[in-house]
Amino acid sequence: MKKLYYLFLSIVFFVTYNCRNKLEYKIDSAIRDNDYVQVSILCTNYTGKRYKQDCEESLQKTDVIIQEIISQKVDFPFTKLIVEEALNKKIMQLLEVNFMFSTKYASIWKETVEIKDK
């Protein structure tokens, strides 16, 4: 009976530990790939302290990326800007999960951007 109890505890610990670190692994992987938009998306669900600075930096860099794309609209006021599908998908996902970015950019992004055909 004791062995069964310890087995159960070890399984619970293993599952809990791996699920908690799965998000950290994804954040670490996105940081290594310099994918700031993906890091920003993942950081909306992250509550730990380990990647706090990386999350803040990624949010700032993502803000700059979005501003650069939208600022091109000044040069081409009557056309939609063409953005790669993968980047558009990530930014749309960020706009869904991050309230600050949603209020700041959601309406302007939808009016300004068009997906690049392959």
Biggest sheet: strands, sense, closure?
2 strands, parallel
Structure class: mainly alpha
Q: Helical residue percent? A: over 70%
Residue stretches low in confidence (pLDDT < 50, at least 5 long) are: none
What would you say this structure looks like, in words?
It is elongated and about 75 Å long. Helix 4 packs antiparallel against helix 5. The longest helix has 31 residues, at 2-32. The protein has helices spanning 2-32, 36-43, 52-71, 85-97, 99-112; strands at 81-83, 113-115. The model has no long low-confidence stretch (mean pLDDT 84). 73% of the residues lie in helices and 5% in strands. It is mainly α and 118 residues long. The protein has one domain. The protein is built from five helices and two strands; from the N terminus they run H-H-H-E-H-H-E. It has a two-stranded parallel sheet.
Please specify the SSE layout and strand pairing.
Elements: H1 2-32, H2 36-43, H3 52-71, E1 81-83, H4 85-97, H5 99-112, E2 113-115
Parallel strand pairs: 1-2
Helix pairs in contact: 1-2, 2-3, 2-4, 4-5
Q: Which terms would index this structure?
A:
5% strand; mainly alpha; 118 residues; 2 strands
